[in-house]
Design brief:
heterodimer, A: about 375 residues, mainly alpha, ABC transporter involved in vitamin B12 uptake, BtuC, about 70% helix, B: alpha/beta, Rossmann fold, 6-stranded mixed beta sheet, 17 helices, globular, binds adenosine-5'-triphosphate, binds magnesium ion
């Protein structure tokens, strides 16, 4: 018998991982759901203690939070309106995160996206509406994609830390935005709040047909689903996950690491830019400081809450949109300072980051089977 | 010095989910002795010692240290008891220097460190050691062998009362291994330390161990005084059957044209080490070229350049007659495969599943080799199932992250992936590190079979015996260059050893 034939016989005799553990993927999904949920509860508990210390009733707080976020049809609308841009800015973090990058410059990309969309629409006012809207979307996506794409390029070619680079570029982007809106592009008629000229009522995007919902919501949900498909069902997404999981293994497989990094950054930035475009086209009608409402920063929080899973971003964005929507009511009714909601968000963020250490701790979620 | 302790495990059981890695294991390690723990890949050796060191919590059973039952719930408890371990996977901080790693590893580090005094102490400590590592070098830049030495030095520096070594010699040269084991045995027999050593090398057991315990599939199946147990007996205990000696059949000779040709290849040196400078290296189809050398003489760099993990500073790499830059398209078209050293760190994505990791070479191609944009989950699962079966990989589940597999099983997975399909050029670095006796025979047979089928093989190995057994031609590397070349038939091991040390 040759050595190889012996091998075959030996292999056939040894029971390998035959008993596949079918329910493992399900349990893993549950774990992914359970950990942030536990973190949320913990953050809520800590926040309740803080409220009690301030002499406010945590129960009232919960009731008002619920009422302001999801209690009425009106509050639902408010929540979803806030969630819409968050879906897209969260993707700006979650997509590059597949490659192990931490991008936090979504705010700047959103602002520039909104501005570029407005600028693209201005010479076209009066043209066929769908054409104007599509041009705006392309311009917004391109501007955001370019901005974060620069970060990707710096990272891939020069090894610059992408977190710092994206933050600095975001500041530069915001400064550029302010300069243009308050200077060369300012509509002289906008006195109190410097704004650009309007894109014209005819070019505004109406609510989702048949409802009163923010159209950005549909765009955001579709984008999340598409990103999920891209990441988990395509070869490119697989290559990105390999690169994010172990750069050396990716190099050994000859994967185009630099190209993947730039691509993911451009895609993520493009979504943030699209969020800016939607805010202009669906809400503000022009570019002004309303765009700088912190959506880019909340997006970071949501992406981490969702552990960078695009589908998990959807419920998380709604949740945080709700917290934001309830903010006003809480201030008025409980006489709390307006930073309260920010403190709550901070608590959630810390709890989520801490919950990362819970993964793999509980045997019940782990693979089973005989070896 | 602190006196050696005795360790007793009583009825240790450890489960991962429904999978029982250890069932009811009891064993006794006498104080001031060297106790060897043997068993095939995935038998549970690492798991057992990790329970002892507080890295895992045993589900049942207890440990007695010097006869007293101790709860070891976390590594700090083990630390307090003076139990230390050199893990199979490295645990040093790569961005810190050797000296920093040593000082920071102490349980109590002063708030302000007097580095001058520490350095002087470290240097005098280092002077008593059988091998040396540059104290100022960054750990990340050290080759595997040097890092392993640093791990061992760290434990000796911490003055442990029990030292567990998980496959400590797999990355050391025979001389280094000999020196290191002589040293720890000396320490043990002088009464200052108890040693528990996990190994697959039966020669080491015979030479250095006092007692042996054999594990098989999570159970203790035998043991006794090392001098009463011969190698065949131990092997039979480990695999539950007598081992049939494998014969390696070498068929056909090397073809004429070069499959791999390296000319004037240079890389930048780092951490005071010279870079590569290889004037000429060729490998032909149906030929195994063995690269011998002491760890840290450029083998790692050579494998990295060929695998696309390091950019050369000059020179050319030619595969199958055309220039080669290790892109995916080139590697796929010309069938270039690489089995890197430390496969978990260099060739796997620890968090991704076994199935995904087995498909890293082929996820973007269909059966006809055409690119595909969509993943084919069914084909991937099927391919993984086939590889797992034919390489006898033991994994709790195909969907488990590959990081939880035992060291030997990770090695098998990477080997299965890299040898799958048509292989034109195979670059392997230390393919048998951490494999059990049976697997070593298997792997060598597979490499030889690939060669016989027409693959050109570049075998980089620190195990000279392995090279002498497998290679058709041998080159010796020293300080980044090739200093000697000889046909394997009739090669003189003594002379090769002298070239390896640069003393020829
Ligand atoms: N964290 C974990 N989760 C699930 N299974 C695990 C985990 N750690 C180890 N195992 C399983 O336990 C078994 C024993 O692993 P262990 O690492 O102890 O083997 P070993 O004897 O050290 O083998 P090797 O010689 O290959 O290093 C393996 O089948 C492994 O897959
Ligand atoms: Mg092990």
């Amino acid at each position: 018998m040759t050595a190889i034939a012996q091998l075959g016989a030996a292999a056939a005799a040894s029971p390998s991982a035959a008993a596949a553990d079918r329910l493992y993927p399900l349990r893993r999904a549950l774990e992914t759901l359970g950990a942030p949920l536990a973190a949320l509860l913990l953050a809520a508990a800590a926040f309740a203690v803080l409220l009690a210390a301030l002499g406010k009733s945590p129960a009232d707080f919960c009731a008002l939070l619920w009422k302001g976020a999801f209690g009425t049809w009106f509050s639902w609308q408010n929540t979803l309106q806030r969630a819409a841009p968050l879906l897209l800015t969260a993707l700006c973090v979650a997509v590059p995160a597949q490659l192990g990058l931490v991008i936090i410059g979504g705010e700047g990309a959103l602002a520039l996206g909104g501005l570029a969309a407005t600028v693209a629409a201005l010479p076209l006012v009066g043209a066929w509406t769908p054409f104007v809207q599509i041009t705006m979307a392309i311009a917004g996506f391109a501007a955001g994609g370019l901005w974060i794409g620069i970060t990707g390029l710096l990272r891939a070619r020069r090894g610059v830390n992408e977190t710092v680079a994206s933050l600095v570029l975001s500041y530069i982007g915001i400064a550029l935005f302010n300069h243009l809106v308050e200077g060369p592009l300012r509509d002289p008629a906008s006195l109190n709040k410097p704004s650009t000229w309007g894109i014209g009522d005819a070019n505004m995007i109406g609510p989702v047909p048949g409802t009163e919902l923010h159209p950005g919501l549909a765009v955001g949900v579709i984008a999340c689903v598409l990103c999920w498909v891209l990441i988990f069902r395509t070869s490119t997404g697989f290559a990105a996950r390999v690169t994010g999981g172990n750069l050396r293994a990716a190099q050994l497989q000859g994967l185009p690491v630099a190209r993947l990094i730039v691509l993911a950054c451009m895609l993520g930035g493009g979504f943030a830019g699209l969020a800016g475009m939607m805010e202009v086209a669906a809400v503000n009608g022009r570019a002004n400081a309303s765009l700088l409402a912190g959506y880019g920063y909340s997006g970071i929080l949501i992406a981490f809450l969702a552990r960078h899973n695009p589908l998990a971003i959807i419920p998380m964005a709604v949740l945080l949109g709700g917290v934001g929507a309830a903010g006003g009511l809480l201030q008025r009714r409980m006489d709390l300072p307006d930073a309260t909601v920010v403190v709550l968000q901070g608590f959630i963020f810390i709890a989520i980051l801490a919950s990362e250490t819970l993964y793999g701790r509980f045997a019940w979620f782990q693979p089973r089977g005989k070896a | 010095m602190t006196p050696a302790v005795s360790v007793e495990a009583v009825g240790i059981t450890k489960r991962f989910g429904a999978f029982t890695a250890l069932s009811d294991i009891s064993l006794r390690v006498r104080p001031a002795s060297v106790h060897a723990l043997l068993g095939e890949n995935g038998a549970g050796k690492s798991t057992l010692v990790k329970c002892l060191l507080g890295y895992y919590r045993a589900d049942e059973g207890s440990f007695l240290i010097d006869g007293r039952e101790e709860t070891i719930a976390r590594p700090a408890d083990a630390d307090r008891l003076g139990l230390g371990m050199v893990y199979q996977h490295f645990t040093l901080v790569p961005s810190m220097t050797v000296a920093e790693n040593l000082v920071m590893s102490r349980a109590t580090v002063p708030a302000v460190i007097d580095w001058r005094r520490e350095r002087a102490e470290l240097e005098s400590f280092m002077a008593q050691m059988p091998f040396r590592v540059p104290l100022g070098a960054d750990v990340g830049g050290l080759a595997a062998g040097e890092r392993q030495k640093t791990e061992i030095l760290k434990q000796l520096y911490l003055q442990r009362r029990l030292l567990v070594l998980d496959e400590p010699t797999s990355v050391l040269t025979p001389q280094e291994a000999e020196e290191m084991l002589t040293l720890v045995r000396g320490l043990a027999h002088s009464g200052s330390i108890t040693v528990c050593i996990i190994t697959h090398k039966l020669k080491e057991v015979a030479r250095f161990a006092d007692e042996v315990t054999v594990l098989r599939r999570g159970r203790a199946v035998g043991g006794g005084a090392a001098r009463d147990l011969a190698a065949p007996e131990l092997t039979a205990m480990m695999i539950g059957e007598p081992q049939a000696p494998a014969t390696l059949e070498r068929r056909g000779g090397a073809a004429k044209e070069e499959r791999l040709l390296v000319r004037h290849l240079r890389t930048e040196g780092d951490a005071g080490r010279p870079g590569l400078d290889i004037a000429h290296l060729a490998v032909h189809p149906r030929e195994i070229v063995g690269v011998a050398g002491v760890s840290g003489n450029g083998q790692k760099e050579l494998a990295e350049v060929l695998g696309g993990q390091r950019a050369p500073a000059g020179g050319e790499v030619i595969v199958a007659g055309e220039s080669y830059a290790a892109t995916r398209a080139q590697a796929q078209a010309r069938g270039v495969r690489v089995l890197p050293e430390e496969p978990l760190r260099n060739g796997c994505v620890p968090r991704m599943s076994v199935t995904d990791n087995l498909n890293l070479r082929s996820f973007d191609r269909d059966d006809q080799g055409r690119p595909r944009a969509w993943l084919d989950a069914r084909a991937m699962a099927e391919r993984a199932r086939r590889m797992i079966a034919s390489y006898g990989v033991r994994a709790p589940s195909r969907e488990a992250p590959i990081g939880v597999l035992s060291g030997g099983n990770v090695q098998r997975c990477v080997l299965a992936r890299e040898l799958d399909g048509e292989v034109g050029l195979l670059i392997v670095a230390n393919p048998c590190f951490g494999l059990d006796v049976k697997a070593v025979a298997e792997v060598r047979a597979r490499i030889m079979a690939a060669r016989n089928a027409g693959t050109a093989v570049l075998l980089i190995s620190e195990d000279l015996d392995e090279i002498l057994e497998l290679a058709d031609r041998i080159v010796v590397m020293h300080a980044g260059t090739i200093v000697h070349e000889t046909p394997a038939a009739g090669a003189d091991a003594q002379a090769i050893g002298a070239y390896m040390l640069g003393s020829h």
